Fold this sequence. Notes:
With 145 residues, this protein is mainly α. Helix content is 74%, strand content 0%.
Amino acid sequence: MPNFTSSKQSASRPSAGPAQLDEKHLAGMIAKLHDPLVASIFLEVLNQYPELETRYLGSYLKAIETVERTQSRNAKARAIGQACKTLRVFAAKASLWVYRSLTFCVARLREHMKQSKRVRSKAKPAANDNVIYLPDASKATGTDY
């Protein structure tokens, strides 16, 4: 069984004319002028029809303000992004420089320690027959537990 009540209800409503629909749509756009996309579309329409600019001058100015504020915000965000990128590259280069410097210092310290061990091992202690001298006391002798 078909439902005819919805078609009867829609037929009983007076249909809005195209001018009324345009007015409703324009009122909806004006209410959303805080959105940059809607503001840019609104400006394009008003630029195509200059007679509407004078009719909706307040809304036109609000749309211009919204678009310019968005462009300003985007420019600031882009500048901050570029500054962060530069800072990140600088930090990476500085970290690499510190790593290489520390690696160089550690290598020189190891060379110096090897040379000082050689010098110590070459130095002969005073003759004492009761003492056994090990070449490196830090190495295990196999008797340590």
